[in-house]
What we know:
The chain is α+β, with helices and mostly antiparallel strands. The chain has helices at 26-34, 50-58, and strands at 12-17, 43-47, 63-67.
Amino acid sequence: MADNETPVAAGMVRVTQVGSPIGRHASQRATLIGLGLNKMHRSRDLEDTPSVRGMIAKVAHLVTAQRAD
């Protein structure tokens, strides 16, 4: 593992932005920012909590989510 990589713990989900927020409601753009996403094809490893799952569901058409390994 490289020095700049963080270990991925159990209970993590990898969220990748696959859609553009252009032309979307401001709340959807804010949700992407809340997930730590702001550019296409960027990924974040987030803790798998009910609040994160709700955010993913709100912008499911703009992101893909998978269990982080």
